[in-house]
Design brief:
homodimer; alpha/beta; Rossmann fold; 3 domains; 6-stranded parallel sheet; globular
Chain lengths: 553, 553
């Protein structure tokens, strides 16, 4: 069948399950925008700007696995690049369609719009190579093979790819007629072959010999859709697991094998002692980042850690390259012997009951336990970078609830658009709950206006404490004036942004927050709660961090 | 005097006249933020996000010449990079201070936050090299010489520079004690030397021989502070000038030598014929971009054009490198003989009187002439990329009014934060008027909340026509659904964003718009007018473009 380049490209993406494409239109992308609008298999998901589109696509990919984004050359792609870098660092494969200036203008000594006023048409392509795992500029001749290369790279690396499409080429006919397989596993290089079996045998040997073993499950389990596999491994082996902050909620925190948060000196000291005392730690993809290690306060003996990573396994000083996490976990689930002796009777500690009376101002001791109480099974909880993230780590999640944060890339403002993307990806039965600070929310606030067009009903809590609270705490008084943000009436924004039927409230006391939460339980619309805590919250928070370990219940 | 690296750096910037630093704080930038907050010579100008900070810094630089920006590594600098690229393409020197992760973490195999989860600390530095004219990562040892190199590059190229400052180095003491000159002209390589005189002699010879001569003044005149020089040249020579769209308002449109807009087939045909018929065209820095050439419909014979550019002059096929526009214009103003014969009696045509009755809906024939009538001498008019830009090109500006657009980089959403930056730079006597479409405004709307903290009183007109109108017009119906934007109650936003004393109105008829404009004339606060035109405006606009030439009065 004869088709245009862009028809081919989006059809190929559709075979991967892509149906929603986030973005902002632009004249160099018109043929892409047009093809998407005309093809009934797709929905165009417009956002207010491209950075927010990339965040939203990332939020969507957290739920659905893959996402797609479309922007124009230069202005659009560079606006999105921070979100793409975040997707790269935190394993979110985004197919980024970039509408480029026509190839006819590349060598014609003319200064097109969306350029630096030079003749270099590929300068942005060059700039962005670090934050995509693969890139191509498509032509009618190369588009089939290049698309296979890009898809292969995205699915192998689970990271964004750059699909540059010159405007004139987009509408050009391509001649080839190939049959395309739907089998994406072709991109995974190893299978349950002898290499995997050998590695698994080695792991099993270490585990069986170890007196105490603990599993640390990482986000890759969730990203790669290995939840069931990891659960089978847990259930069969009887091994316990602890969570690291970036990876919180990857496995069900109500599972009997869950022992709590492992977070260096910031976490539960009993969990800390137990994990570090284990003879063997099975690390299922956890990245040893600054946050995951409690700012390097965790002191794991890496000779006792077995790293089962995306494409390799490390046991001691031996590294087995090219063995895929997916197959290693599948084999491990079959071959680990059941054991009960390992189950340490650690009570999972959480935030306990909210402390405060109805007329009290909202302090941390009330707020975070109350939020934790509010969570329900299967909730999708999205927490922006900042002060809220740390206390909420200690909230024990209800069954099947998931917790999304961005503690490696840590770009504040990420969560509001990400919540939109996640909400769009979620089934109607799951609530999407966004918890964000005022400073973060100000970055990308306009994206709340996207929910109504898609009849989505998020629950949004905005902490109004007058600035970048986390930075007040860690930066000290010297930079205090830099940490002020503009004074907004947050609860009035949803109406102005077209979320006219939402339940909105501004709450300043514990009783008001309770009342608002009770209304949300019954209401059929989106909800947006401005929680005013004032600046003194900073002092409470500092204290909270200092005492966080003692506060755990 | 012993001082820290960051104390040195900001003191050095202060010698250039930098007093306001735009940005968003971040933990890697804390020492920079702290030094700025503690130094009474500076004001920290916070914005809601980094892209908007870069736009605001650009707006500020349009008025003041130079600007400074501070963001954190990775998340911050990449968010700002689109605005930096725009500043690069449109000649706005921004000193960008980037707070980097401590040098102690560079080789320690740890994954810090705001990284891609790799050990490469300089990946963002490498990515961004294309959009800065110079970059450095400062150390206590190199900071003095590197700062001189960066300042030299910024002032020579009139483009952004990247000043990377590792967190630990920022607070390190530097030993050297150098006396720093305030004389920035040291960065301009040529002066009124023999080279300049030779070039000017050659130009004068061509001009004197030519029967008809026309000047095209470019934005560099404004950027480089050469307004008075160019005016002297005009006044002495008696030569006429026409404006190109990107460069509109660089010289006073009420000057008797002004003949109108030269904009290829989109402009006044009389101006077009006259300019293209001239024996000599003195191009003072105009870039022959897609927009400036009326999408390549202008047909200048380049053998008749003398290009007086930033660092070179072209006469015919001869290029004189290393002669500075500044000195060439100064010399030219002295040596061009006065002539009157050249003055072509072209009446400058403008948008004429608004057409419509008070109860009529707001059509293009009413709106743009009415906006033009509203403009006053010395207004700073900032028009976002999109539909409004083109008709407003034909508005004849009152004396000393300036007109700012971004027709080369053309990043929609630019104007709202740029208006904040420009307003901050403006004296209180000058009004700052922002005219933006809804699609562009949605990109960066939150920045209106910055005006009140600085007691600024902008006048903002937002055209609510339900989407990306310019794209509906040029993209056609195929992409129409992509061009919808979320439905907002724009006039309710200022209150929610803390602009509580502003005059706000939503107008749908010519009479209502008139009434709102009359109130603005008297009011002492900021003003925000939502002008509802509906989608049918698109049809009018298309017609307007088609008929634009006939419509000129």
């Amino acid at each position: 069948m004869k088709q245009t380049l862009i028809e081919y490209v989006i059809s190929r993406l559709n075979l991967l399950g892509i149906t929603n494409i986030f973005g902002v239109p632009g004249d160099y992308s018109f043929p892409i925008n047009g093809a998407i609008c005309e093809d009934k298999r797709f929905r165009w998901i417009g956002t207010c700007n491209e950075l927010n589109a990339s965040y939203a696509a990332g939020g969507y990919a957290r739920i659905k696995g893959l996402a797609a984004l479309c922007t124009t050359q230069g202005v659009g792609e560079l606006s999105a690049i921070n979100g793409i870098a975040g997707a790269y660092s935190e394993y979110l494969p985004i197919f980024h369609l970039v509408g480029m200036q026509p190839s006819t203008t590349w060598k014609s000594h003319v200064y097109m719009h969306h350029t630096l006023g030079t003749e270099e048409h590929d300068v942005f392509f060059k700039m962005s190579k670090y934050v995509y795992c693969a890139q191509a500029i498509l032509t009618p001749e190369n588009c089939i093979s290049e698309m296979e290369r890009l898809i292969g790279a995205a699915l192998y690396n689970w990271r964004p790819v750059y699909i540059g499409i010159p405007k004139d080429y987009a509408s050009s006919m391509i001649q080839e007629n190939v049959s395309i397989t739907k089998n994406n596993t072709m991109y995974i290089k190893s299978d349950s072959s002898s290499a995997v079996r050998a590695v698994v045998t080695a792991i099993v040997e270490v585990v069986q010999k170890a007196k105490t073993v603990c599993i640390l499950p990482g986000i890759l389990i969730s990203r790669l859709g290995l939840y069931d596999t990891a659960l089978a491994l847990l259930n069969r082996s009887g091994l316990v697991f602890a969570s690291t902050p970036m990876d919180k909620g990857v496995l069900d925190e109500m599972h009997p094998s869950y022992i709590g948060m492992y977070f260096g000196h910031y976490g539960d000291p009993e969990v800390y002692s137990f994990v570090e005392s284990c003879n063997c730690i099975l690390n299922l993809g956890v990245m040893m980042t600054e946050i995951n290690t409690g700012r390097f306060t965790s002191k794991l003996d890496f000779s006792k850690v077995i790293d089962i990573m995306h494409h390799h396994v490390r046991i001691g000083s031996s590294i087995f390259q090219g063995v895929e996490m997916k197959y290693v976990l599948q084999e491990l689930a079959k071959h680990l012997s059941p054991r009960c002796t390992n189950v340490k009777t650690l009570d999972v500690r959480d935030l306990g009951l909210p402390k405060g009376s109805p007329d009290d101002p909202i302090k941390v001791e009330y707020l975070y336990p109350r939020l934790a109480q509010f969570f329900k099974p299967a909730d999708t909880i999205i927490v922006d970078v900042g002060t809220s993230f740390l206390p909420l780590i200690y909230a024990r999640l209800p069954a099947r609830a998931t917790f999304h944060n961005s503690s490696l890339w840590a770009s504040i403002g990420w969560a509001t658009p990400a919540a939109f993307g996640a909400s769009l990806a979620n089934s109607e039965q799951r609530r999407t709950i966004l918890i964000t600070g005022d400073g973060a929310h100000q970055m990308s606030v306009q994206e709340i206006s996207q929910f109504p067009s898609h009849r989505l009903k998020p629950i949004i809590f905005v902490l109004n404490n007058g600035g970048y609270l986390i930075e007040r705490i860690i930066g000290g008084s010297k930079i205090d004036t830099c940490n002020d943000v503009a004074s907004w009436d947050y609860h009035e924004l949803p109406k102005a942004f077209g979320c006219s039927d939402w339940f909105t409230a501004k709450v300043t006391t514990c009783g008001e927050l309770d009342q608002a939460m009770r209304i949300i339980e019954r209401c059929e619309t989106g909800a947006y709660i401005e929680i005013v805590t004032g600046r003194e919250f900073a002092a409470f928070m500092s204290e909270f961090y200092r005492l966080s370990i003692q506060m755990l219940h």
